[in-house]
Write a structure and sequence with these properties.
Blueprint lengths: L2 H20 L16 E8 L2 E8 L6 H14 L15 E8 L3 E2 L5 H6 L7 E5 L3 E4 L1 H6 L4 H11 L13 E5 L1 E5 L4
Antiparallel strand pairs: 1-2, 1-3, 3-8, 4-7, 5-6, 5-7
Length: 184
């Protein structure tokens, strides 16, 4: 994705949040071309701390519509945080992650998972009795090893930290193109 389109998506996310407080819809007149079918996440930071993060691992609607939905959800529906207040908006920095299609990580033993995860490049999804997802930047931020990354995605899914070793659970990897208002 080129820098111009990245800037348009960041502006769309910002306008979505502003419009939410005014009970209006964001302006989508200049983004109609951003209809790719890609997964995405919108992450909100306040004073360099996570303030909300919601997204779609797989495409369910055109990209610009997913950005609108994910922006609103990150601000108002992330169960880890109270809804964003209008006063907080000035302190929010928006980050967008555009995802590749998740690919099943095939393994005959759990040790094979450890060899096939690229910290700093791969994000992880675990699916079993529940599911969890961690974006690639999480592993870098917390200096995870592949094993700690797998344990953390298992815990994010509400599973035991060692459930990634159970081969009946499915592990997927994906990559992300990450850009932020801080990148300007």
């Amino acid at each position: 994705m080129n820098k111009k389109d990245q800037a348009l998506l960041l502006k769309l996310a910002r306008n979505t949040l502003e419009a939410s407080f005014n009970d209006t819809d964001p302006d989508t007149s200049n983004i109609g071309h951003l209809t790719q079918l890609r997964g995405c996440f919108v992450t909100l930071h306040k004073h360099n701390q996570l303030r909300g993060c919601i997204g779609f691992p797989r495409p369910v609607m055109p990209l610009y519509e997913q950005i609108i939905a994910a922006s609103k959800a990150a601000a108002f529906d992330d169960p880890r945080f109270p809804p964003l207040s209008k006063d907080e908006l000035k302190d929010i920095v928006i980050e967008i992650s555009i995802l590749t299609r998740p690919e099943l990580l095939k393994a005959k033993s759990s040790d094979e998972y450890l060899k096939n995860i690229n910290i700093g490049k791969d994000g992880l999804i675990i699916q079993g009795r529940s599911s969890g997802l961690l974006l690639p930047q999480v592993a870098v931020e917390y200096k995870f090893t592949p094993e700690k990354f797998l344990e953390s995605v298992s815990e994010k899914a509400g599973m035991d930290k060692d459930d990634w070793k159970n081969l009946s659970n499915k592990i997927y990897t994906f990559r992300a193109e990450i850009f932020s208002e801080d990148d300007k």
